[in-house]
Amino acid sequence: MAPPIQFITGNANKLREVKAILEPQIEIQSQSLDLEEIQGTIEEVAESKCRRAADLVNGPVLVEDTALCFNALGGLPGPYIKWFLDKTGHQGLNNLLAAYEDKSAEAVCTFAYSPGPGRDPIIFQGRTPGRIVPARGPSKFGWDPVFEFEGKTYAEMESAEKNKISHRARALKKLQTWFESQQETA
Ligand SMILES: O=c1[nH]cnc2c1ncn2[C@@H]1O[C@H](COP(=O)(O)OP(=O)(O)O)[C@@H](O)[C@H]1O
Ligand SMILES: [Mg+2]
User: Which residues bind ITP (predicted)?
Assistant: First the structure.
C-alpha cells in the first residue's frame, strides 16, 4: 500500500475531487496552508508553491494550481483566473470575450509533487478544451457554470461525469501512473 500523500490546499472542492479520483488506491491527507502565488507561467506558479510547501511541511507534498485560458486572449486569464473570477464574476468572464468571435478556452490543471525540502518538484498537467458560455447549472465550484465541454457545462454534469473528463482528472491520471511506477521500483 502506498504511503498517504499530503495534499496542500484550502479549497474543499479541489480536495473532494482529488479524493474521489485517487482513493482508495492512493490515500490523501490534507493540510491548508496559505501559499503565496508568484507571477509567471502556469508551471512556474505551481513549482514555486510546491517548493514553499515542502519547506513548510518538511516532508513530501502535493500542490495544485488551476488556470483557465481564453484562446482569444492568448491564454489569459490563465493562472490569474482566481482574481478575475472574484472581481468580475461569471458574467464578467463572458464580457471579456464579447469583442471576439472565438469563445474557446482551455482548463488547465497542474499538480506539483516534491519528495521534500530542496527537492525538485515533478509536474503533472491535464488540459480539457471547452468554451466560455453564459452560466448554466448550479454555482457550487468556481467557474464550473461558464465552462462548457461537449454541450454541457461542468456545473451541469454529475460529479462522476466531470471527474472522468476534467482537467483535474487528466492530470491525476498522469500522477497516478507515475506513483504506480515508483511503487514498482521501490
Ligand atoms: O474544476 C474547477 N472548476 C471550476 N472552478 C475551478 C476549478 N478548479 C479551480 N477553480 C477555480 O479557479 C481558480 C483557480 O485558482 P487556484 O488554483 O489558485 O485556487 P485555490 O487558491 O482556490 O486553490 C479559483 O477561483 C478556483 O476556485
Ligand atoms: Mg492559482
Answer: 9-14, 49, 65-66, 141-144, 162, 167-168
- The CA 85 to ligand 1 mean position distance, Å, reads 9
pLDDT-based confidence at residue 2 (cuts at 50, 70, 90): low
Per-residue model confidence (pLDDT) at position 3: 75
pLDDT over 70 (residue 124): yes
**How far apart (Å, rounded) are the C-alpha atoms in residues 63 and 55?**
13
Query: CATH topology for 5-185?
Result: Maf protein (3.90.950)
Contacts 24+ apart (CB under 8 A), 134-139: 134/90, 134/91, 134/94, 135/90, 135/91, 139/90
The pTM of the full predicted model, rounded to 2 decimals, is: 0.96
User: What pLDDT, on the 0 to 100 scale, is given for residue 161?
Assistant: 98
Quick check: CB of 47 below 6 Å from ligand 1?
no
Would you say 151 is a known binding-site residue?
Answer: no
154 CB under 6 A from ligand 1?
yes
| Grid coordinates belonging to 3 | 504511503
Task: Round to whole Å and give the CA distance between 92 and 84.
Answer: 8
The mean pLDDT value of the chain amounts to 95
184 Cα to the center of ligand 1, angstroms = 33
What is the number of other CB atoms lying within 10 angstroms of the CB of residue 184?
7
